[in-house]
Recover the amino acids of this structure.
């Protein structure tokens, strides 16, 4: 036969539908965005790293065609007759319906037929979540960052500009060259000088024909010639010159550090912490989309502050009072020792129920204004309380007036507000 | 009729017990697929099946979902609706609610058949027999396919279409192209002249003539509309009387492509592409029962022939028959799984019974099928495959026995009555009306509303009027407004659709809606 051609296509791309899928998501982005916003309201933190099921009303998604509607007279042939004979009358069920024209099939999964449900991936989930959000200053910083690179030493080269000349290396090279080029001749000179010495010290031969003078002359001439030769070896030659070599390397400005500051004092209930948690997660995911490398520093505080790991940050319990400035001080210290602002984009988010020792609040304001805000891209403060504000809030309000570009604050009363507040804080600002 | 070799019913030389199966396991390999295909091809040859060369492509489940969602087109332009289809398929598959089709086969030359890697060896053999020899010979032999599609050109045409659409997206933006495609898809089933033979699709031809067409089309359209703004024409009653189009047109897409006043050339070209694809699918929409019945009949017959030859063992047959019976299972009307007549069952039953009528006719058969009873079954089946579509095939070959076996009955639902009425069942007085009713059910113009271009107000507001002729007072469905909006988008001026039942307008649709017009 041999008419058949068998091909293994399994290694061919399988994402042939990727573009069509993307087109679909694009077309229904409004529906999907809403579903994502709803999901963020409801999800617990650990859930944020997965996709989401999205339902769109079938009505909005139908591809309309001309088809028959209900009504009129219609005859349909069915299989599996049991007891009917021609002429039988069967009462219609109340509420009409009956034989459709083959439209509207039953849903196979018992889901309402009015919903078209599908799954979006985590990646897509986040895309929609962060759609048209951008951190303030981000665009600017980003632009700068992509151009920022640093020079890294990469050995030596024999070409370069005078400013990069490495003197020691060059002289060392010259010395070696001089040794290399003159060595054999110097040895010869030494030998000849010994010979000359011997000749001069030897007793004079009576026979003028064997006089040493001629020999001495020959040796002396030879020595003179060799010495002149050696002298002609340049002290430093162009080939001795060594320049320091530097290559451009992109600066790791694609990295960001995120400080999470949270009050874990007794007044913070689990509900408060939950809200804070989600807010931090959002910020983290948001940064993750914009930076290749992100460090996260967790600082929790009550009367004193401590840098902790994520687990301890979210899950351990404390009691006692609150001194916010302790956390700010610690944060500043950590920046100074580990996160130079020239290399890191620094973000900070602080969550608190607003409680603070009244004496401490002015200290916080001063710390922020003088030592922290100049270093960070953005500092967001969320106060999780349904109650009236306390001293800290008013202190921070003054800060916000002075630093509108890098400081923002919002109040969150219940979990449903996290996402709107998050959006508000990080709303894209026209450049 | 092609030369049919031997009588496959009489096994050649094998003695019982002399079984030498090609393989016994259920794991497939490329060598085994090759071997099975060789043997199946030999069997198909014995039965005179005439096919295009086969191209069997082994693909993964994900790739099968891709193939699914592009309605079986191996190459397609991009559109969100295919993405929706994909999401739907993937959802069903991942939840295990829906097995993927074992196979997809494309009406092309060579005939491309996809085999899923997950299939067991017996399943691969079944698919090869079903698709590569069943469907393939149907594509090559059936008159509708021969008339409406050009198997050797379709892949090239699809490539042309995809490139053209991509180019348009680049030049005019994804949104603009998507709008046009949406509107065209809404009318895709109205892109065929049922009674005119179309020129075959050819990619090379398309590409070559496309430029020419651009210029020509635009000129043509200008000519049509040039007469509009001359008011003195209105004085001439003869000219005023003349209608455009002179005869109602059923090919809405063609009419719009050629006559819509405002479309740009690329938009007309896209309409043409969708129209051509509609034309490509047109035969499939009319031969589902026959095509599946034919393919099912042949996988059944070919694999039994393999068994008779001792090439497969009992275990193979057991697995095959299990799949086969699942495919041809017809749930009764009152079953929760019932969703209409299973085309596999109906087609397989008719072809199988046709063979029986030829080989072992009863008196009833002699009365009902005097020309066929006792004839050469292979010739008769091939004749049926070549020259019919579902409607005429059922009308011609549905036997009383099949009606009895399937226990067919017809129910009338008249919205003016408060009872359903059983109008015919599988008994002597019922056979003929039942057969007629079932045949009509597969008539495209009964299944889809009859809508035609009725008039264009060439000298007035340029509005386009479509006319729907209801059958048995069946009205248009709830999508109608939406589709009319799509027609409006393409036409560019007011669009009216009227349902006219025996001279009376029973329903009207307008875009834009009249109340908005008043302002």
């Amino acid at each position: 036969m041999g008419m058949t051609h068998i091909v293994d296509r399994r290694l061919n791309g399988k994402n042939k539908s990727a573009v069509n899928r993307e087109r679909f998501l694009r077309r229904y982005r409004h529906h999907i965005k809403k579903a994502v916003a709803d999901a963020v309201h409801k999800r617990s933190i650990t859930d944020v790293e997965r996709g989401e099921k999205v339902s769109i009303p079938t009505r909005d998604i139908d591809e309309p065609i001309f088809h028959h509607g209900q009504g009129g007279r219609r005859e349909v042939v069915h299989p599996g007759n049991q007891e009917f004979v021609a002429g039988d009358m069967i009462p219609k069920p109340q509420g009409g319906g009956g034989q459709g024209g083959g439209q509207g099939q039953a849903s196979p999964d018992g889901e309402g037929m009015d919903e078209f449900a599908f799954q979006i991936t985590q990646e897509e989930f986040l895309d929609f979540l962060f759609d048209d959000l951008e951190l303030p200053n981000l665009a600017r910083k980003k632009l700068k960052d992509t151009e920022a690179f640093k020079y890294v030493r990469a050995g030596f080269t024999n070409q370069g500009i005078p400013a990069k000349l490495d003197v020691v290396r060059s002289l060392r090279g010259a010395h070696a060259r001089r040794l290399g080029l003159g060595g054999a001749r110097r040895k010869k000179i030494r030998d000849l000088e010994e010979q000359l010495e011997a000749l001069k010290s030897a007793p004079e031969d009576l026979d003028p024909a064997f006089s040493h003078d001629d020999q001495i002359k020959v040796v002396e001439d030879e020595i003179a010639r060799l010495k002149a030769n050696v002298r002609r070896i340049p002290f430093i030659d162009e080939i001795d010159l060594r320049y320091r070599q530097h290559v451009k390397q992109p600066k790791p400005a694609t990295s960001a550090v995120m400080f999470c500051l949270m009050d874990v004092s007794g007044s913070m209930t689990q509900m408060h912490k939950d809200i804070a948690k989600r807010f931090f997660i959002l910020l983290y995911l948001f940064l993750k989309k914009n930076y290749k490398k992100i460090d996260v520093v967790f600082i929790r505080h009550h009367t004193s502050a401590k840098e902790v790991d994520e687990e301890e940050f979210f899950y351990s319990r404390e009691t006692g009072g609150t001194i916010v400035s302790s956390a700010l001080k610690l944060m500043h210290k950590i920046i100074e020792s580990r996160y130079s602002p020239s290399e890191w984009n620094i973000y900070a988010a602080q969550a608190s129920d607003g409680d603070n020792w009244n004496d401490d609040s002015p200290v916080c304001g001063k710390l922020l204004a003088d030592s922290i805000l100049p270093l960070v891209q953005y500092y967001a403060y969320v106060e999780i309380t349904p109650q009236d504000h306390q001293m800290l809030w008013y202190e921070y309000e003054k800060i916000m007036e002075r630093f509108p570009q890098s400081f923002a604050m919002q109040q969150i009363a219940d979990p449903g507000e996290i996402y709107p507040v998050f959006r508000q804080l990080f709303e894209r600002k026209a450049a | 009729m092609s030369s049919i070799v031997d009588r496959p019913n009489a096994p050649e030389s094998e003695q019982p017990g002399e079984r030498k199966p090609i393989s016994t396991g259920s794991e497939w390999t490329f060598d085994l697929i090759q071997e099975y295909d060789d043997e199946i091809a030999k069997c198909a040859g014995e039965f005179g099946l005439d096919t295009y060369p086969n191209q069997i492509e082994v693909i993964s489940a994900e790739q099968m979902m891709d193939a699914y969602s592009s309605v079986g087109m191996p190459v397609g332009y991009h559109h969100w609706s295919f993405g929706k289809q994909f999401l739907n398929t993937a959802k069903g598959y991942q939840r295990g609610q829906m097995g993927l089709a074992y196979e997809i086969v494309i009406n092309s030359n060579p005939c491309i058949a996809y085999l899923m890697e997950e299939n067991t060896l017996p399943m691969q053999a079944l698919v090869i027999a079903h698709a590569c020899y069943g469907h393939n010979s149907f594509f090559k032999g059936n008159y509708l396919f021969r008339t409406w599609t050009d198997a050797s050109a379709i892949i090239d045409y699809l490539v042309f279409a995809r490139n053209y659409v991509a180019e348009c997206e680049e030049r005019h933006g994804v949104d603009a192209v998507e709008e046009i495609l949406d509107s065209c898809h809404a009318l895709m089933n109205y892109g065929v002249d049922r009674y005119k033979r179309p020129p075959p699709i050819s990619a090379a031809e398309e590409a070559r003539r496309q430029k020419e067409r651009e210029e020509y089309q635009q000129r043509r359209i200008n000519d049509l509309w040039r007469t509009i703004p001359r008011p003195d024409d209105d004085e001439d009653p003869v000219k005023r009387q003349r209608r455009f189009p002179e005869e109602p047109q059923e090919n809405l897409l063609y009419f719009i492509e050629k006559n819509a006043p405002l479309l740009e050339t690329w938009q007309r070209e896209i309409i043409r592409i969708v129209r051509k694809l509609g034309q490509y699918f047109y035969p499939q929409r009319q031969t589902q029962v026959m095509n599946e019945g034919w393919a099912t009949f042949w996988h059944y017959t070919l694999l039994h022939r393999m068994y008779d030859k001792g090439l497969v063992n009992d275990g193979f047959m057991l697995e095959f028959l299990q799949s086969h019976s699942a495919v041809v299972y017809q749930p009764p009307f009152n079953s929760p799984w019932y969703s209409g007549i299973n085309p596999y069952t109906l087609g397989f039953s008719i072809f199988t019974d046709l063979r029986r009528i030829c080989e072992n006719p009863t008196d009833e058969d002699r009365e009902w099928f005097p020309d066929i009873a006792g004839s050469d079954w292979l010739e008769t089946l091939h004749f049926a495959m070549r020259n019919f579509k579902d409607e005429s095939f059922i009308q011609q070959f549905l036997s009383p026995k099949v009606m009895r076996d399937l226990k067919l009955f017809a129910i009338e639902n008249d919205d003016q009555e408060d009872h359903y009425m059983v109008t015919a069942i599988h008994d002597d007085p019922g056979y003929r009306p039942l057969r007629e009713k079932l045949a009509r059910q597969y008539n495209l113009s009964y299944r889809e509303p009859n809508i035609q271009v009725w008039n264009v107000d060439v000298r007035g507001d340029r509005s386009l009027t479509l006319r729907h002729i209801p059958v048995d007072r069946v009205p248009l469905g709830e999508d109608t407004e939406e589709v009319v909006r799509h027609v409006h988008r393409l036409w560019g001026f007011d669009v009216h659709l009227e349902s006219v039942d025996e001279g009376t307008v029973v329903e009207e649709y307008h875009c834009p809606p009249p109340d908005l017009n008043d302002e």
